[in-house]
Design goal:
Layout lengths: L4 H18 L4 H17 L6 H22 L7 H8 L2 H29 L15
Helix pairs in contact: 1-2, 1-3, 1-5, 3-5
Length: 132
């Protein structure tokens, strides 16, 4: 199975963020391959809106920022102590809730792309913690 359009657009925005934030030139080859795949969708006359890239990149950037600071404490000998010192448990919980909401926003954007282009599948995110 080839990559679907929503996943491809998402992947391109993540690669762009990695190139910008990590100064990782080796990722450019993967981005080039993704852009070639995107060109194939365009050749089939599928309308691809620039706003989808902009919105997904913004959401992925927010997720990245929130997760990055949490990852910084993962190597600590006592992760819970490091979390309490860095964020406080209440703020850590709020951060986790914000990330969860952004992940749902991201899925909704990808679903919009799939619905408007007829390319890809509907992604369903479930709040496992909140289910009974």
């Amino acid at each position: 199975m080839e990559i679907t359009l929503p996943e491809l657009i998402d992947r391109i925005t993540i690669l762009e963020l990695k190139i910008e934030r990590l100064n990782a030139p080796y990722i450019k080859d993967e981005l080039l391959e993704c852009q070639k795949a995107l060109a194939k969708f365009k050749e089939r006359k599928i309308e691809i809106k620039d706003e989808w890239f902009k919105i997904l990149k913004e959401v992925n950037g927010k997720i990245w920022d929130l997760e990055f600071e949490v990852r910084e404490i993962m190597d600590a000998d006592d992760v819970w102590k490091a979390a309490e010192e860095k964020f406080g448990f209440e703020n850590l919980g709020k951060r986790a809730q914000t990330i969860a909401k952004l992940v749902i926003d991201r899925a909704n954007i990808k679903n919009e792309i799939a619905q408007k282009t007829g390319q890809g599948f509907k992604e369903v995110k479930t709040d496992y913690c909140g289910q009974k």
